[in-house]
Amino acid sequence: MKVKELQKTVNIAWSPLPQNPIYLAAGSAAQQIDSNVNPTLEIYSTNFIDPSYDLELKASLPSQYRFQKVIWSPTGYDGAHPNGLIVGGCEGGHVMIYSAAKMLANEEGLIARQDKHTGPVSGLDVNPFQTNLLASCASESEIFIWDLNNTTTHMNPGTKTQPLEDVQNVAWNRQVQHILASVFSSRCVIWDLRKSEQIIKLSDTQSRVRWHAIQWHPDVATQVWLASEDDQAPVVQLWDLRYATAPAKTMQIHQRGVLGMSWCPRDVD
C-alpha cells in the first residue's frame, strides 16, 4: 500500500534508526536525462499521520554534481552532528559529506568533499560496527575506505583487482566488521581488511548475469545476495561463502533488471 511518494528522479536514503522523526534524504540522480534540472540534496519529513501522499520538504541545498548514491550515517549523533551525516557519491569521482543537522537548521551543510576517485562514485556503505568508516567505489577497480571524522586520507582494502573494471557496489558484512564485499558486473570479490587482501571471488559462469546490487544476510555472516541488472537475466542469487563455486539459490521474479535490494531490519526472514 502506497503511503507517500516523491515525484522526482532522485537517489534516496532513510535517516538512521535512532532518528526521530523519520527523514528521507534525496539527491538529484545522475541517471536522469533532463539536464535543465539544477541538482540538489533535499531532506523530507515523513508525516504518516497526514493522509496525503506528499512529503514535507525540510531542507534543500544546491549541488554542483548529481548523485549516483546517497547514504545516511549515524556518525556524530553524540557530538557535532546530532542528526548524523549524509554522504553522496557523485559524478566525476566526488564524495560529498553533509551535516544533516546543519541542513535542517538552514545552514551550509557541506562539511567535507573528496575528489580522489576516478569516474563516478557508484557505491557507498557505512560499517555497522564503526559508523565512522565509509567504503566507496568507482571506476578502474577503485575501492577506498574513509574515516568520516577525518577524510583527508583514505586506505585501500588491498591490491586492485585485475582486469581493471567499474565497481558497481560495496557492502560491509553485518556480522564480521572487517569483511567487505565489492561487486563487479561479472564477479563479486570479498575482502579481509585485517589481511588487506582478497579472500574469496564469486563468479557465475553458467548465466548471463550482470551484477549490480548486493546485500549481506543480517544474521548469517557467510551468506550474501547478489542481483543482476540485466533485463535478459533479472535474477537474484543467494551465495554461501562456504560453498562458493555456485549460487545456493537463484530466483527470477522480476521482469526487468534488479537495481536495488534492502532487508527489513525488523523481520530478516
Task: Tell me the structural class.
Answer: mainly beta
Radius of gyration, whole Å: 18 Å
- Strand segment tally: 20
Low-confidence stretches: none
Whole-number mean pLDDT = 92
Relative helix content: under 10%
Quaternary class: single chain
Which topology of the largest domain does CATH recognise?
Methylamine Dehydrogenase, Chain H
Total helical elements = 1
Task: Describe, in plain words, how this protein is organized in 3D.
The protein is mostly beta strands. The chain has two domains: 1-119, YVTN repeat-like/Quinoprotein amine dehydrogenase (Methylamine Dehydrogenase, Chain H); 157-269, Methylamine Dehydrogenase, Chain H (7 Propeller), CATH 2.130.10. It has one helix spanning 100-104, and strands at residues 10-14, 23-28, 40-45, 56-62, 67-73, 85-90, 95-99, 110-114, 123-126, 133-137, 143-147, 150-155, 169-172, 179-183, 188-192, 197-202, 211-216, 223-228, 236-240, 249-251. It has a four-stranded antiparallel beta sheet with strand order 1-2-3-4. It has a four-stranded antiparallel beta sheet with strand order 5-6-7-8. A four-stranded antiparallel beta sheet has the order 9-10-11-12, with no helix packed on it. The radius of gyration is 18 Å and the shape is globular. The two termini are 20 Å apart. The model has no long low-confidence stretch (mean pLDDT 92). WD repeats lie at residues 114-156. It is found in: Endoplasmic reticulum. Belongs to the WD repeat SEC31 family.
